Amino acid sequence: MLDALTAQMSAAFLLALLGGAHCAGMCGGFVGALQLRRAPQIGAAALSLGYHAGRLTSYTAAGALAGGAGAALFAVNVLPLQVGLLAVGAVMLLAIGASMFGARALLARLEPAGAWLWRAIAPLARRVYPPRSRTQAFMAGLAWGWIPCGMVYGALPLALAAGGAAQGTLVMLAFGLGTLPNMLALDVAVVRLGAARDGVLAPVAQWVKPLAGAVIVVFGLSGLAHAARVAGAQHPAIAAIASICHR
User: Fold this and answer.
1) Could you give the CA distance from residue 145 to residue 53 in angstroms, rounded to a whole number?
2) How confident is residue 225, by pLDDT bands cut at 50, 70 and 90?
3) Are 91 and 224 in contact (CB under 8 A)?
4) Per-domain residue ranges of the chain
5) Helix, strand or coil, per DSSP, at residue 10
6) Does residue 42 contact residue 151 with C-beta atoms inside 8 Å?
7) Helix, strand or coil for residue 118?
8) Exposure of 201 by Cβ count < 10 A (0-12 exposed, 13-18 middle, 19+ buried)?
């Protein structure tokens, strides 16, 4: 039996890990621009370490903000609001599960929502491009983490409903770690072959995705049942489903 936080972290990790094709399409050009125009005073590995560390730092910062905001809202003693937050996390789990069965448009529609933030950050990013040191690589990664991305926005509602800033941080850290295998494979492809290619996990993901999607859908159904139980529903079936991911 999984607790709610573990279920949310697992869903965020699987979304990122099995979304390799999306990562390659979304960030392959960015990796290529950084590595193929790498300044001679910084090595490829140091550059990669810097911008991935920066990227994950931005994800976890966003998770902390979302988790803290969700906890503040949940602390308001208004039952409909609390139930709504639980339902948001559960519905996003269902959307993530559906995306793994091929319904990618559900997440792609979220990407325009963050365009305004990127417009504010882009001028700062240009100041550290191309990175000429580890620090500048880290700063470039910090900016990269705020590029509008449907998968990131799909994971953030899980952080919102995670229960607090620390829990939201863990959810988005799990998401960031899930992106690393495919993104590091892209790094290797760019450095060695001079072109961005899909991650090495793509053939495996083709077979694992439906199974992972089904598991995440179960997480989502359990979350909806838990929200219904908090709202006052007392049916034994609801209690049984809710118990899958909620102790």
Assistant:
1) 10
2) confident
3) yes
4) 4-242
5) helix
6) no
7) helix
8) middle
User: Per mean pLDDT, which of 12-16, 61-65, 147-151 is the most reliable?
Assistant: 61-65
Contact in structure between 185 and 195 (CB atoms under 8 Å): no
Q: Where are the beta strands (DSSP E) in 38-174?
A: none
What is d(CA 173, CA 62) in angstroms, rounded to the nearest whole number? Answer: 10
What residues contact residue 35 under an 8 Å CB cut-off, 6+ apart?
A: 44, 47, 48, 187, 190, 191
Give the number of other CB atoms < 10 A from CB of residue 206.
12
Q: Which residue has the tokens 């709504």?
A: 84
Buried b (16+ CB within 10 A) or exposed e, 47-69: bbbbbbebbbbbbbbbbbbbbbe
pLDDT in tens, 32-87: 777 777 888 888 888 889 989 999 999 999 999 999 988 888 777 667 777 777 78
Question: How far is it, in rounded angstroms, from Cα 213 to Cα 206?
Answer: 12
Q: How far apart are CA 179 and CA 15, in angstroms?
A: 9
Q: What share of the chain is helix, strand, coil (3-state, %, to 5)?
A: 80, 0, 20
| Coil/strand/helix, residue 126 | helix
**Cβ–Cβ < 8 Å for 36, 190:** yes
Backbone φ and ψ of 149, nearest 5°: -150, 125
The pTM of this model reads 0.77
pLDDT (tens digit, 9 = 90+) per residue, 232-241?
777 776 777 7
Q: At what angle do helices 165-193 and 150-160 cross, to 10 degrees?
A: 160
Residue 100 main-chain phi, psi, to 5 deg: -80, -10
What CA–CA distance (Å, rounded) separates 178 from 190? 20
